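User: My collaborator sent over this chain with a note saying "see what the structure looks like." That's all I know about it. Can you take a look?
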Amino acid sequence: MRLVECREIDEVFYASDCALGGEVWTIPKPHARQISIQLRVGLGGLHSLDNAHAMGIAHFIEHRLFEKEAGDISDRFAALGGDVNASTGLASTDYTLSCSSHLEEHIDMLCELVFEPYWEAKSIERERDIVASEIRLYRDDPEWVGYYSCLRGAYGEQVIGREIAGDEAFLDAVDADLLDRWHEAFYQPPNTSLFVSGNVDPRHVAGIYENALRRHVRCHPTGIGQAWSETPNVLPPAQGLPLVQTQAAVRHPQIFMAFPDSGLGDPPRTIGRELALEIGLDMAMGPASNAFARWYESGLLLGDSFSAEVHMEQAYGFCMVSAETDSPVQFAEAVCQTLRADWPGADWRGDFARAQRKIYGQVVRSFETPDGCVEIMNAARQLGGEPFDYINLLGELHPEDIAEGFEHCLNPGRVGIAHLLPGAV
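Assistant: Without extra context I'll predict from the sequence alone. Here is the result:
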């Protein structure tokens, strides 16, 4: 077991490899009452198997794994005081557990949840109806519609612009054999990571997890890696695609802008680039910037609707800007004009130190709670790093790194734009 210290924030991090494959990362929090656990499986919408993409399939498997022969396994967690949930993303599926006691039983049940599927025909049929209803609900959610609409504008017909839950046509093809092939290929220990934080002994946690894997992992002669592919390096087209306009149940027009990362660099996407973009966005258009003040005071921004976020993993990266505005065309031009500003002459270049301190504070706060610790461990793992890299690399960044991040990602010539306009859906 490897120990890493970060004296700057007085935290330690333990990492160990499992005999069956995969890894366990632990950040002890001796005074915490809560234990947070996250089991990451490397299956998301961008993966493929036998030349078929996982959009819809990864999400359906996540739903179905909660149903066991004896009923919904969530009830068993609740009986022990635990709360379990799951979410499917583009590059992984994450199973999250919160508890305060019965650690061994909870980790054992988490492995049963993830590694022991129960594909019963009638249950699959019921799940089709549930997911179909979920898909229809998503289409009534302005945030969801705007998010995927601008991604389609940025990436065209690439898989990243498709909805994680799939569509109704996909649901007709789902059966037990399909689910079992995907589960067998991806839900194997070498394709997983366990993140734990709380008042726990890291060696004890690693031992519990090893024993649980031996009890619950199905053994397959082919093993992982025979038919599935890693997530691709998702690259944007040379230029953004035409504007996407959609009517939605919104009171004011909303705009969503996706700036895709170019995928250039060696390696292309790292914790350092993510941090550089976080700092750069805050400098250019954060609440303390001159641009934000102009937009707000002129009425271009409505209320507190403005958001600027970085989404970064090894397979893809993009920055998304969104807001409510009565003048979406004018707002898009204002954002792009801010990003076009010549870097040495930009009126926000001198704000680097302030923005760096702000992001540093946010990172430090992530280590204050078990929930925050498992999230930052997962984020670091997704970018090929370790959790304390967020602290160490942040102090090494310079304004030139921000300029490089802008060059690779925040390019006004490669932006997908979606307008949500008030009207009947």
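A starting point for your reply to your collaborator: The two ends are 55 Å apart (CA to CA).
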